[in-house]
Recover the amino acids of this structure.
């Protein structure tokens, strides 16, 4: 087909441009309609005055509280006029002054009161003070001075004649003292009603609360980042294609390992329960507890050293292997006991020391909490480790089977194994679904998922029957990526709602939500760094006969330290910013107080919060860029 | 004795890197592997320690079948095969000493090595290996502060740290200038003659082959096209290996 040329082509081009412009106009018109763009609202005077008020308040963060005291401006005054009349003394036109005209009147007659050089928009009340000077009679409502601090009012006087000089007193409430010359003011404590002496100006309540809350915010971000990093670092290796793509395992091994996983986990939970029971014998007595915490780790270390020696030249005899495995099991149970002991010890130390440490009591409380955390996660950790051990054993058994049994046995064996493994996975998923949707029908939660799983397993086995291996590495890689992307797509602001339900309103909920999001975000960033490292060193370390873990420690980790640090700092920076708003959803930190102030229309206090956020974010940015420069 | 029989490697995607390659290497021999870039030299060397999984064929070493060895056995085999790379493959941010100590990873306690703790005698051995290549005073520098020639000497020290019975050298001097090339080759020769380590070394320059190798194999498009002592490579053989347009230099 010949391409149109010459004028035909340019006409077509013009038509296309015109269509594109029309399409653009339509798109933006619809966009304006959907986003309610309305300029008449912008011009409305009431909105403008409100806006002005808010912006002006925001521009004056309430950092300092000034005491307001009454200041009097007195003008001598006669009522009625004395013989010979009366003229008020001249006053300085550059100072605050009040001129009363006429300077003397008949009782009850009107006077014009003119004030100058008051503060802009000052609120002034005018009084008549009789000669006795212990009473004063208001002559006016509150008068508001103009922008130059001037006002003029025509007021009626009262029927209070006197031969002596009276006063026309203008009282205005004004803040007193300056930063450089603070005043001391007698005031009344609003709570107790007692007379107190306070300074003016002094640090405002809003500023004090902001300080507390911004500290809370920074530490919330720190905890969330730390927790996130701890989990994200190991996770990131599973989400790195270059580390995972070569991991292919035989189907027989995969099947055995999947079956071993739940068995190991259950046994781990049982072992943890057993160890908890054992540890209770020791925790009942403080001396025994201390001895246990010191002696057991030493014994465990010796046991581990003996049973995990350097790689020997020849594979060890099977008797020695069994002895080692036995010692390892005992040492592991002892290890769990030690963890229980440590947890108990920390809790005890915390409760004992908290009252003694007075203002450093938070250290004791930290110890208690740490102890609680240790005790709480032991079961989880044990289940996890036991599952790992069982999977490793299953893997070894599969290797042994593949080298010792004939191919004609292992290959068909992979079919029932795959079916059983598939069924096991689906059964576990079925239990989850049953819990979510509260299905109690055994047909639906046992037989159907089991059957479907078995069929899936069989299908997989049939698919890979010839080459016998499954690219489990890539499967884990895609699984991990999907999981991270899923978690990452939910903003922490939304996550915090769930955590608030779980742990209550406050910074803890915020920290948990941020941690979860941090794990997903960092694992993704980290894994992409792992994917971009040089492959050469990995190859070199593998070639020395190193294990997979050794390869990661020696060839991968040194290469990723600088980007990991840099990303971690960046994430802390993000978390500080996130934690300033996570309070809007109940996650504690400065956001909670900022939201409160905005709702209460307390814009000057809100301005203090925003100022604090700006300072912290800016200094975090500065700090992290400095640290990055240093390390990378 | 290393015996390679009918070795074939087909990469995913169908690229045939090696096809039916068979040869034998007696213990203590210095074997040069020559051929153009892309002729399969690197693949061949990496099949021997199974950094690359062969598709077909058998490799036996001291009577043990490498191609079917289990993961655990493979680690035991690998730690006795040192490897030297064209691009040195040092971990840049680690210390020179740590790079050399990597050579002992197959021997030390895996649990302790994870926390970067090596037995004292291994550290002393690593220092001795560095001394041997003249870099003892650089042991605590970062690897990337060294020059190319020095880095390759660290690579040789790392391979020697394994107390190997065989060293696979994949174009060990291709990234170095000719003067440095001889110094590295002399270290390999020293290892070969003094420690009686079998050396399989892929090389570009024929003069290096003549100078150092006991025996030669040549690969062309994944096929073995020549096997014999370097002195037998005459002009006809040279054209066979490197193609008609090639001209001899050096």
């Amino acid at each position: 087909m010949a391409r149109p040329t010459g004028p035909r082509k340019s006409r077509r081009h013009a038509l296309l441009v015109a269509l594109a412009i029309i399409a653009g106009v339509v798109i933006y018109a619809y966009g304006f309609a959907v986003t309610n763009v309305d300029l008449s609202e912008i011009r409305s005077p009431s909105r403008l005055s409100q806006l002005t008020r808010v912006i002006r308040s925001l521009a004056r963060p309430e950092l300092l509280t000034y005491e307001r005291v009454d200041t009097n401006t007195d003008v001598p005054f006669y009522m009625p006029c004395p013989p010979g009349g009366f003229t008020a003394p001249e006053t300085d036109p550059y100072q605050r002054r009040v001129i009363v005209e006429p300077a003397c009147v008949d009782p009850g007659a009107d006077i014009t009161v003119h004030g100058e050089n008051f503060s802009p928009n000052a609120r002034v009340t005018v009084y008549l003070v009789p000669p006795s000077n212990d009473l004063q009679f208001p002559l006016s409502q509150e008068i508001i001075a103009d922008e130059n601090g001037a006002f003029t009012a025509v007021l009626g006087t009262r029927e209070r004649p006197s031969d002596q000089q009276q006063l026309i007193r203008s009282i205005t409430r004004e803040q007193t003292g300056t930063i450089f010359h603070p005043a001391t003011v007698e005031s009344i404590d609003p709570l107790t009603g007692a007379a107190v002496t306070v300074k003016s100006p002094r640090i405002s309540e809003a500023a004090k609360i902001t300080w507390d809350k911004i500290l809370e915010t920074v530490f919330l971000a720190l905890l969330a980042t730390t927790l996130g990093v701890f989990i994200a670092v190991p996770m990131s290796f599973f989400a790195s294609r270059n580390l995972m793509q070569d991991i292919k395992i035989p189907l027989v091994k995969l099947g055995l390992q999947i079956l071993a996983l739940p068995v190991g986990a259950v046994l781990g939970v049982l072992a943890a329960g057993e160890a908890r029971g054992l540890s209770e014998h020791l925790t009942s007595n403080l001396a025994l507890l201390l001895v246990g915490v010191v002696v057991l780790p030493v014994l465990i270390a010796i046991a581990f050293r003996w049973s995990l020696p350097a790689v020997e030249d020849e594979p060890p005899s099977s008797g020695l292997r069994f002895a080692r495995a036995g010692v390892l099991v005992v040492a592991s149970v002892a290890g769990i006991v030690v963890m229980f002991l440590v947890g108990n010890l920390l809790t005890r130390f915390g409760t004992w020391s908290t009252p003694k440490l007075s203002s450093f009591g938070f250290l004791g409380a930290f110890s208690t909490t740490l102890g609680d955390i240790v005790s709480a996660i032991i079961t989880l950790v044990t289940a996890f480790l036991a599952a790992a051990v069982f999977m490793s054993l299953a893997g070894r058994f599969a290797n042994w089977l593949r080298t010792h049994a004939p191919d004609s046995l292992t290959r068909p064996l992979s079919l029932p194994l795959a079916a059983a493994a598939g069924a096991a996975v689906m059964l576990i998923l079925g239990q989850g679904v049953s819990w979510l949707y509260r299905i109690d029908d055994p047909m639906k939660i046992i037989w159907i998922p089991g059957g479907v799983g078995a069929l899936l397993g069989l299908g997989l086995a049939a698919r890979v029957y010839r080459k016998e291996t499954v690219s489990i590495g890539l499967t884990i890689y895609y699984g991990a990526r999907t999981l991270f992307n899923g978690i990452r797509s939910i903003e922490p602001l939304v996550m915090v709602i769930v955590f608030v339900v779980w742990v209550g309103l406050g910074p803890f909920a915020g920290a948990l939500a941020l941690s979860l999001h941090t794990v997903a975000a960092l694992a993704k960033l980290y894994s992409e760094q792992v994917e971009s490292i040089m492959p050469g060193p990995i190859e070199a370390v593998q070639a020395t006969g190193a294990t997979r873990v050794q390869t990661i420690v020696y060839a991968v980790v040194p290469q990723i330290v600088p980007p990991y640090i840099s990303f971690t700092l960046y994430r802390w920076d993000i978390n500080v910013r996130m934690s300033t708003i996570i309070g809007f959803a109940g996650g504690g930190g400065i956001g909670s107080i900022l939201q409160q102030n905005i709702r209460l229309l307390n814009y000057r206090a809100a301005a203090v919060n925003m100022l604090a956020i700006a300072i912290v974010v800016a200094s975090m940015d500065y700090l992290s860029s400095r640290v990055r420069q240093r390390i990378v | 004795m290393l015996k390679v029989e009918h070795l074939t490697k087909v990469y995913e995607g169908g690229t045939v890197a090696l096809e039916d390659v068979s040869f034998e290497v007696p213990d203590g021999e210095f074997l040069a592997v020559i051929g153009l870039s892309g002729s399969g030299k690197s693949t061949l060397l990496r099949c021997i320690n199974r950094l690359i999984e062969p598709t077909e064929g058998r490799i036996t070493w001291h009577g043990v079948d490498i191609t079917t060895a289990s993961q655990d056995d493979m680690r035991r085999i690998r730690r006795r095969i040192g490897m030297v790379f064209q691009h040195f493959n040092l971990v840049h941010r680690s210390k020179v000493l740590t790079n050399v100590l990597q050579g002992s990873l197959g021997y030390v306690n895996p649990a302790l090595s994870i926390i970067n703790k090596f037995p004292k005698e291994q550290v002393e051995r690593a220092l001795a290996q560095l001394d041997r290549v003249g870099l003892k005073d650089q042991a605590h520098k970062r690897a990337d502060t060294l020059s190319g020639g020095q880095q390759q000497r660290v690579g040789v020290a790392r391979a020697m740290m394994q107390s190997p019975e065989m060293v696979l050298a994949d174009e060990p001097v291709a990234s170095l200038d000719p003067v440095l090339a001889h110094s590295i080759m002399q270290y390999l020769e020293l290892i070969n003659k003094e420690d009686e380590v079998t050396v399989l070394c892929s090389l570009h320059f024929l003069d290096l082959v003549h100078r150092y190798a006991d025996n030669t194999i040549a690969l062309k498009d994944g096929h073995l096209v020549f096997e014999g002592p370097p002195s037998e490579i005459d002009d006809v053989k040279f054209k066979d290996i490197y193609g008609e347009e090639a001209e001899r230099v050096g």
